[in-house]
Design a protein that fits this description.
The complex is a heterodimer of chains A (331) and B (297). Chain A is built from 11 helices and 14 strands. In chain A, helix 7 packs across helix 11. Chain A is globular, with a radius of gyration of 19 Å. The two termini of chain A are 26 Å apart. In chain A, 61% of the residues are buried. The model of chain A has no long low-confidence stretch (mean pLDDT 97). Chain B is α/β, with parallel strands linked by helices and 297 residues long. In chain B, the strands form 2 sheets. A 5-stranded parallel β-sheet of chain B has the order 1-2-3-7-6, sandwiched between helices. In chain B, strands 4-5 form a two-stranded antiparallel ribbon. In chain B, strand 2, helix 6 and strand 3 form a beta-alpha-beta unit. The mean pLDDT of chain B is 97. The chains are: A alpha/beta (331), B alpha/beta (297). The interface between A and B is medium-sized, with 29 and 31 residues.
Chain lengths: 331, 297
């Protein structure tokens, strides 16, 4: 059952569940951040509408900077703005920022300790038809490895808006991972959000002990919830965690979760190597070693297709998650 | 701001002392870059002792001008100038590149007051300076009295990011931004025109809507005049192409790219044996220092 304490969207399992692109939440969050704080500035590299930064740029043209297709400049110009007291948000596709401009992010933002917020849109393979060149499935790995960087992968547009607003005041660099496609809305305005805080969003309806746990980040939380529901219908009760902040990792809650459920499947639209699952494994190997399975892209590049085709092909759909839980139960 | 004769002598002597201190620091460090720091000493001197609005007693004074050193590897001249300007004791230069030192091999802004950026990886300094100038323009429009200075190497003109920043600076008409290129014609692998021809640099910058000034980078008055001229513009950023002599001040080291990345003691040995390179450099600079006043009079 959905955790009632979190005031989640009770219509999440309806066929006509509301669907909104996660990037929309970023656009609305940035607009609100701009209204709250006049030091907030927006910078974009020729993808203003795509990344929904247009909501901000239309309202605050004087605080918006269009840099053209120049992602390295995007990162370092933002660092310069931050050095003068601004709170810059930069947006592009995740493949280009933090992909193409990784060293500038590492040195001019993080090593410099400037509080630049990096919004990487169109992350994951669900970008679909654009194909493998545009499917960023390495971005969590390359951002979480940098000291001082906070890494957030919101599960839906509402959480993305909250993450965007919360990132204004961290005083640190933040990476916010966004997706292009419409994503079912799982949370509500009332659902609590705090950077660095993991949430248990699904618990055994019977009140009994779960046989396994699923930890998901980003939009695949939806497939994870569906897997949990289907498993429960077959008599296998699990818990599901929304781990939207990949760094800093909520180690205490993850360790307690592992102790409680004993087996864990991690789910992310990202390479298995170096992603959220790896972060969880690093934590658990040290604190509570438990058997794990990893749902994600297995050391391959993506290709063109519909999001559903691609999720099935690369083993990240509901069926694959159920398969991973069943595999764990046999271990 | 006119430079009197007395001030000119002072600045020349200051530049010479900065060169001596940086050579001493490099000898102590046993690694680091020599040619660039020597050839930028005159420009650093004019900045810190004439052009720059700053206060060594209040390094974080909000109204200060901002100085961004993009090619962080020439930091021996930055550190030496800062020490002579009173940011920290000249003694501390001995710690250059040592464990626990504030004087990192490439500058880290959190280690030392007044550093605006950390730098080393080439090509990103101008972008950061553009960001600072943009912030200043957002806050003060066309009435800012603060200037943003960026110091670049000529090798950095090979970095694509430099041109990304140049385009944005021109587009945004960053009148409050002055950049300087150390045109010493060398880089670590050889002479710039052999590694990657850069000319015509001035045409390239003009094409991106920058005001271009070419100067002799060792002529104190020309340097000061160029900084002053840049302040009078309201519609363009300024780039000062400073023609310098790599290794300036030590004739045995001058114009030789092999001095780009080596300290005295580890440089090319065809002119001076390794074990006397430090001694020779200091002797040349002390002799030069002794002549400044008499030659001027």
């Amino acid at each position: 059952m959905l955790n009632p304490d979190l005031k989640l969207n009770t219509k999440v399992f309806d066929e006509k569940v509301e669907q909104v692109p996660i990037r929309q939440g970023f656009g609305e969050g940035l607009l609100a951040a701009g209204e709250n704080n006049e030091q907030v500035v927006g910078l974009c590299a020729d993808l203003t509408e795509s990344t929904r930064m247009n909501l901000f740029s239309e309202k605050f043209p004087n605080r918006f900077i269009q840099l053209g297709v120049a992602e390295q400049n995007l990162a370092s110009v933002a660092s310069g703005l931050a050095a003068m007291g601004k709170i810059p948000f930069i947006s592009s596709y995740a493949m280009f920022s933090p992909g193409r401009n990784w060293e500038q992010i590492r040195t001019t933002i993080c090593y410099n300790n400037q509080p630049v917020k990096i919004a990487g849109s169109h992350a994951g393979i669900s970008v679909g038809p654009d194909g493998g060149t545009h499917q960023a499935v390495e971005d969590i790995a390359i951002t979480r490895v940098i000291p001082r960087m906070i890494v957030i992968s919101p599960c839906d547009a509402i959480e993305a808006k909250k993450a965007t607003l919360a990132s204004v005041d961290t005083g640190t660099p933040v990476y916010i991972r966004l997706a292009r496609e419409k994503t079912p809305v799982m949370t509500t305005k009332e659902t609590p959000f705090e950077i660095g805080k993991a949430q248990i969003i699904w618990k055994p309806t019977s009140g009994g002990r779960a046989k396994a746990g699923i930890i998901a980040t980003g939009a695949l939380l939806y497939q994870s919830l569906k897997a949990a529901k289907e498993l429960e219908e077959k008599g296998i009760e699990v818990e599901v965690m929304n781990l939207s902040t990949v760094k800093p990792l909520d180690e205490k809650i993850i360790a307690l979760f592992a102790k409680r459920v004993g087996r864990i499947v991690t789910v992310e639209e990202h390479q298995i190597r170096g992603g959220m699952g790896s972060a969880v494994a690093e934590c658990l190997a040290k604190n509570v070693p438990v058997p794990m399975e990893f749902i994600g892209v297995d050391d391959q590049f993506g290709q063109s297709g519909t999001p559903d085709e691609l999720l099935a092909h690369y083993g990240m759909d509901t069926k694959s998650i159920i398969g991973a839980v069943n595999k764990l139960l046999k271990r | 701001m006119e430079i009197t004769d007395e001030k000119l002598i002072e600045l020349k002597e200051k530049a010479n002392n900065i060169r001596i201190s940086l050579i001493e620091a490099l000898i102590g460090a046993g690694s680091g870059h020599t040619a660039g720091p020597l050839d930028m000493a005159d420009i650093f001197t004019v900045l810190f002792f004439h052009a720059l609005k700053h206060n060594p007693q209040k390094p974080d004074w909000p109204e200060r001008d901002r100085l961004v050193l993009s090619n962080g590897h020439i930091c021996p001249v930055l550190y030496s100038t800062m020490a002579h300007a009173g940011y920290f004791p000249v003694e501390e230069l001995k710690t250059l590149r040592k464990f626990g030192s504030r004087l990192q091999g490439h500058p880290h802004r959190e280690y030392l007051p007044m550093l605006e950026t950390s730098s080393g990886p080439l090509g990103s300094g101008l972008s950061q300076a553009v960001g600072m100038a943009l912030a200043d323009k957002i806050d003060h429009g066309l009435t800012s009295s603060r200037r943003i200075y960026a110091l670049l190497s000529d090798g950095e003109q090979e970095c694509g990011q430099t041109w990304e920043a140049a385009m944005l600076g021109g587009k945004e008409k960053l009148y409050n931004l002055t950049a300087v290129i150390d045109r010493n014609n060398i880089q670590i692998d050889g002479y710039t025109e052999d590694i990657m021809p850069l000319e015509s640099l001035s045409d390239k910058w003009r094409a991106w809507n920058w005001h271009v000034i070419e100067i002799d980078g060792h002529n104190i008055e020309e340097i000061a005049d160029a900084f002053e001229a840049a302040k009078s513009l309201t519609s363009k950023p300024t780039i000062i192409i400073a023609h310098t002599i790599a290794g300036k001040g030590v004739p045995e080291f001058e114009r030789d790219y092999r001095w780009h990345g080596n300290p005295p003691g580890k440089g090319p040995t065809d002119k001076v044996p390794a074990d006397s390179q430090g001694e020779v450099a200091l002797a040349e600079l002390r002799t030069l220092g002794g002549k400044i006043r008499s030659e001027h009079q």
